[in-house]
Amino acid sequence: MPRRALAAVGVVALVLLAGCSGALSGSAADAPQSQAGSTIEVSGVGSASGQPNRAVVRVGVVATADDAVTARQRLAENVSRMREALSEMGLTDDQVTTQYYDIGRDYRPPRREGAEPRVQYRATHEFEITLSDVDRVGAVIDTAVRNGATNIDDVSFTLSAERRQRLEHAARKSAMTDARRKAETLAEAANLTITGVHVVRVEGGSPRPADVEYAATATPTANAGTDVESGPVDVVATVQVVYNATAA
Question: How far apart (Å, rounded) are the C-alpha atoms in residues 113 and 101?
Fold first, then answer.
């Protein structure tokens, strides 16, 4: 199989949206009055970036035959060879998990006009390979393809739970700084002085990252293995803050 290089760029979007139960209105004019008499309501956006430290490779093994039994046997042989090779690389069973399995008829166009469609049986076994070392993605792809894998369906980069939490914390702090800056600008224009925070609103529950988006291009290489390059992962947080204010 020709070598190829995959370039993947990961992007994670984490948005803490306004809109909890009993949320305040969206404009400063309609915001509730504090004991001091005035409030300013703003939205703040912050982000934090980090290199991904988790990768997911989705591979497929496909085998065909004129009957289902033979197709299944061929599939099992290829899957066994691939899993053994991945095990020799140090991957454990919980890192290589089944995502899909199917055996079905595969109708092919007839070889001549007017003939009946040709029927084959197609057996498919798809796996998800999870790696904590993103630098091993290319080697895992090469090993899988050399040992029975027929499809590389997806490569994505993301963050471990610990690293994601650190970036979420940094993104929230940045969002609060942004909100304060906006509120101070509005207060100055309205001849007000900010005296404190009245309400901070976020969506309830623990924040969760969205699916990783990635872009990949394949380029054949003559003497090199598969190269996969990941870009930084961005975590973005949005907060809505109501500040107390008094006349300057």
Answer: 34
